[in-house]
Amino acid sequence: MTPHLIIKKLWTRFAVLLLLLACAAASHAALAAALPEGVRQAASIEGINEYRLASGLRVLLFPDLSKDTITVNITYLVGSRHEGYGETGMAHLLEHLVFKGTPKHPDIPQELTAHGCRPNGSTWYDRTNYFETFAATGENLDWALDLEADRMVNSNISKTDLDSEFSVVRNEFEIGENYPQSVLIDRLMSAAYLWHNYGKSTIGSRADIERVPIDNLKAFYKRWYRPDNAVLVVAGKFDEAATLGKVAGLFGSIPVPTEPIPMGYTVEPAQDGERSVVLRRVGDVQVAAALYHIPAGSHADFPAIDLLSFILGDEPAGRLHKALVETQKASSVYSWAFQLFEPGALILGAEVREEKSIEDARDSMLSTVDDLLKNPPTKAEVDRARSDRLKNWETTMRNSEWAAIELSEWSAMGDWRLMFIHRDRLGTVTPEDVERVAQTYLKPENRTVGLYIPADEPMRAEIPAPPDVAGLVKDYKGGEALAAGESFDVTPSAIEARVIRAKVAPGIKLVMVPKKTRGATVQAAMRFHMGDEKSLQGQATAGEMAAATLMRGTTKRTRQEIEDTIDRLKAQIRIFGDATSVFSSIETTRENLPEALRLVAEILREPSFPASEFELVRQEKLAALEDSKTDPFQIASTTLDRHLNPWPEKDPRHVFTPVESIANVKAATLEQAKKFHADFYGASAAEIGIVGDFEPNEIESLVAELLKGWQSKMSYTRLASPYRPRPSISESLETPDKESAAFLAGIRIDMRDDSAEYPALVLGNFMTGGGFLNSRLATRLRQEEGISYGAGSFFYASAFENSANFGSYAIYAPQNSELLIRAYKEEIGKVLDSGFEENEIAEAKQGWLQQRRVSRSSERELASTLAAREEQARTLSFDEGLERAVGSLTNSQILAAMKKHLAVDGISLVQAGDFAKAGKTAEEGKQAVAAPGP
Predict the structure, then answer these.
(1) Which of 340, 437, 502, 836 is the most exposed place for a label (fewest CB within 10 A)?
(2) Overall CATH class of domain 730-921
(3) Whole-number Å distance between alpha carbons of 101 and 158
(4) pLDDT tens, 653-679?
(5) Separation CA 871–CA 739 (nearest Å)
(6) How many CB atoms within 10 Å of residue 480?
(7) Quick one: pLDDT at residue 83?
(8) What CATH superfamily is the domain 286-467?
(9) Could you tell me which of 519, 512, 473 has the C-alpha nearest to residue 496?
(10) Helix or strand holding residue 892 (H, E)
(11) Distance between CA 459 and CA 462 in Å, rounded?
C-alpha cells in the first residue's frame, strides 16, 4: 500500500470516529433537552451520563453499542460500616434475603436464570450492590429495571426466608474460617481499629448471624434501601432516551422515607503504638502481615499510596519480592491498599513455607518497609507503578460491563467521578509524593504486627479526614472518552458470516473475526499441543514447570522487562499449560496487537529459563500445594478424580495427590524443564482465535512470520480419555479443624457431544444444578433448607471420543452431612423419576440460550470458542445445531436420556470435613436444646 493510501485510510477511520463521537454528543444533547418529568441532567464524563431523579436516585447511563449485552448494577450506600451493636453481618445477610423475592417477583433466582443472566450481589464496608448482565433486548432490560425498582422497597424479608438463609450465610462464614490468610487479615483489622466498624469483618460474627431478630433486619432494610441512598448504572447496548424514560417511570414513583439517612460520626483515633496479633490454626503455609492506617480513598494522598503499594508488593519488581521471595524467605508476597469512604488500611503480607522461619520473614518485611524510608522510591519504580495502575484502569473502561460494576466502589467512596479523578491524580504523582506518604504513614507506631515495644515518646500518624467530595467533583470535566464500538450480531450464523479462516503453516489454524470494539480492544486465544501417549510418559511435572517458567525471562528480556513491555502495550497476557498443551491469551488494543503477538512468540520460542526464577516457581508451587493438603474441597476433588479417571503414575493423565505433587516438584530440575521445551514445544499443532479491532491481512502475515519453522521434535497425537465404567464409591474423609466441609459426586457416561442424547443431558443438567440459585439442587440445599452455601452440578462430554462426566458439588457445615446426602439423593431421584415441569423446561431453555448469547458477546470467550472449534474441525454451525436441538426438547426426551445414563446408586459420593468435631458439636447442641430455660 502506498503512503498516500495509508494516510487516506487512517484519515477515513479518524473521520468515522469523529462522526460517531459527534453523533453521540448530538444524541446526548437532544436527550438533555427533553428530559422526562422529575429528571435533571447532572455530570457527563467520558461517555458516562448522570441524571438525578426528584427522589434523589442517581442514574448513570453508559451506552456501549459494541456489546450485545446490558449490565444493570444498583448500589446501595450501606455496608458493614453502618451496622449497629449485635448486628454485624446484617448488610451481607440482607444481600442474601433480597434474592428471596417480592410479591411481584416471587422467585428471583428462577427469573435470573430464565433471562440468561450473569448475576450476583456483593457487600463491602461501604456499600451493597446487585447486578445482572444479560443479552441486550428490550424485554430483558424492562424486566431487570422492574426487578430492581421492585426489590428496592418490596422485598419480602420474611422470618421463613431468614430461617433458611441464615445457615447458608453461616456456611459462607465457615468457608472463610477455613483459610488462615483471610482470618489473619480479619484479626489485623480488628486489632487496628478500636472503635470504627472497619475493624469488623463484613461477614459478621457467627452469633449475630444466627440470632439477629427479623424485625431488626426489616428496619435495617427500610432505613437504607431507598432511592436517595442508591446509584443505578445501566451499561451496554441500549437506547439512552428510552431507558431514561423507563427508569423515571419505575423509580420515580418510589416514595422517599421521611426519616433522613443516618449520618456516621465515629472517628478512629490515631494509633499510638505497634499492636500484635498471633493466630494459631491447623494448616501448612505460614503468613506474616502488617497493616498501616491510611487516608480515605478520595484523599489527595491516596494515589501516591496506591503507587507505594505497587512498589512494595509487585512481583517481580517489588521491594518485598526482592527481599523475601528472591532470598527464599517467603514463597510469595502481596500488598493491598483498601480504598474506602473513610480512612482505610494498607496491608502487606508474605506466605512462608512451613520449613522456613516466620520470624525471619516478618523481620525482613518490616526492615524492607523501614528501609524504604531511608532509600525512597526511584523515578523508574514510580513510573512502572503508574503504568500498571493506568493500564488496569483503561482495561476496565474498555469493558462497559466491568466498568458498570467498578462504579459501585467509587460511588461508595462518595461519588462515581472519583474514578476519573483518581486516574488523573495518578498521572501527576512524583517520586517525592510517594516518599512523603511513606514517611507520613509507614511509621512503626502506625502498624499492627509483631510484638509491643514501648516508646519513649509517641509518634502518631494523624490520618486526615475525608475531603469534601461534592466540592472536589463539582467542576470536574474528565478527559476524552474511549472510542466506541459497533453493534455486533452474536448469533452463530451471523458470526460465521464474518469469520476468516486460514492455515498459515502446516498444523497452524488461524480463525479471525474483525469487529469494531470499545477502546479498539482485541482478544486473542492461542493453543499449542504437543507429544503423544508414549513420548509423554513421566513428563507431567517437567511439562508443568516448563510452562510455569516461560514468562520469567527470554533470551532478549528479563522477567521485569517482559512485565514492563506488557504494561507499555496496555495488554493483559497470560501463558499457562502442562505437559500436553500450552495456552496463551492476549487482551490489548489494535495498535499494540502486532507487538503483543511478537512478545508472546518470543516468550514461547526463546525462553531463557533463569535458574533463580525456576527456584521461585518451585517455591510458589510448593506453597500452593502445601496449602491444599488440608483443604476439604481439594481433598474431595482429588479423591473423586483419581477414582473416576485411573491412569498409571507415569501417564500425563494421572491425578496426583498434593503430597505426591509436592514430592514431584521438589525433585524437578531446571534441565528437565529446558529439555521438555526443546523436545516438545512447537507449532506443529496449533489453533489461534482472534476477535476484535485489527487488520486481518496484517495479522495473518505476522502470525505466519512469527511461527515459521517452529516445529516440534516429538510428533503430536491427542491424548484420549475414553469411557471406562467405574463402580460407585461413598467416602468420608477427615480434615481436622476445618469449619466448612466439601461434597463432590460424579459418574462417567458413555457419550460424545454430538450424540443424539447430548442436548437432553445438557438441559437436564442445567435444570438440575445450573442457573443462578434456582436449580433443583440449589433450591433444595440452599433456598429451602439452608444446608449449603453453594450447590450445583456440571456435565461435560468430549468432542473426540465417547467420554462424558456428570458431577455435583456442595459446600456445607460438617454437622449437616447426613442432611445433605439425603437431600441430594432425593433431588436426583425426583429428577430421574418424573423429570421436569413444562414451564420449568421453557424457562430453562430461554435462560440457557441467553447465557450462550452473553458468552459469545465477550470477545475473549468468543476467541477461545473459535480456537476450540478449529481443533474439533467444526464451525459455529455446531453451536447453532446444538441450540436448535435444545430449543426443541420435550420432558419425555430429557427424562429418557437422564434415566438411561444416570442412576442414584451409580453416582460416586465423596465428602471431606471435620466430621469428628461436628459430631461432638451436634451432641452439645442437642443437650443445649434439651436443657431447661432460666
Answers:
(1) 502
(2) alpha beta
(3) 10
(4) 999 999 999 999 999 999 999 999 999
(5) 43
(6) 8
(7) 87
(8) Metalloenzyme, LuxS/M16 peptidase-like (3.30.830.10)
(9) 512
(10) helix 891-901
(11) 9
